[in-house]
Amino acid sequence: MNLxxxxxVTAGALSAQKTRLDIVAQNIANAQTTRTPAGGPYQRQVVSxxxxxxxxxxxxxxxxxxxxxxxxxxxxxxxxxVYNPQHPDAGADGLVTMPNVNIAYxxxxxxxxxxxxxxxxxxxxNARQMAKKALDIGKL
Length: 140
Fold this sequence. Notes:
By secondary structure, the protein is an alpha+beta fold. About 45% of the residues lie in helices and about 25% in strands. The chain has two helices and four strands. The strands form two sheets. A two-stranded antiparallel ribbon has the order 1-2. Helix 1 (about 5-30) packs antiparallel against helix 2. The longest helix has about 35 residues, at about 105-140. The protein is elongated, with a radius of gyration of 22 Å.
């Protein structure tokens, strides 16, 4: 069994989940941003993942699947209209278009991304311990 290949697969998943955590944090930070440099309210960002086939050549040819970042795209769902005529971004009718960020949904996404990251980190730690034990057996 090739433990290094397993760690490489998990490294891709760790990187993808770290990016997901960063994007969720960005969404939460901009939940009240009604004006961006591009104009209009902040648009929630969504991360999508892809599977990646990794070929490892050893005694035979084997293939492993890993996860990688597919794309980061804007969620085009319209934001909520809030009546606040005092707001600098209010229209003539007094309505302000808010970002399409739902804090509760983002917190759930943050927790699931955090747990996925922790699970992948656990795999790396276990693989490292197994490799260390295999080296200890080899010393005998």
